[in-house]
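Collaborator request, handled under Task 6.
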Amino acid sequence: MDFILHQQVENKQKQINIKEREIMITLTAVLIVGFIVGVLVGRNNVKTVEKAVDEALGLYEKAQEEIGELKSKIKKPKKAVKKAVKKTAPKI
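Structure tokens returned to the collaborator:
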């Protein structure tokens, strides 16, 4: 009885391992195909891609300018200056 159960468990594990391998192969294939399709679409639409990159760079520069303006408007808190206290020698 134990032998039959042991064989059934091993068969189930083999089936699971085969399914995991199939999933890994499928995911790897999808990743590779997606990368290739992205490269091909980018090559065919170079002008559009360049335009999008130029727009993104322009927006980045505007954002940096606004950040600089906001930083300059922020008032920095003044640090408290301790007054110098004159120390006197103790009287004996």
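The cover message to the collaborator said: "The chain has two helices and no strands. The radius of gyration is 35 Å. Please let us know whether this matches your experimental observations."
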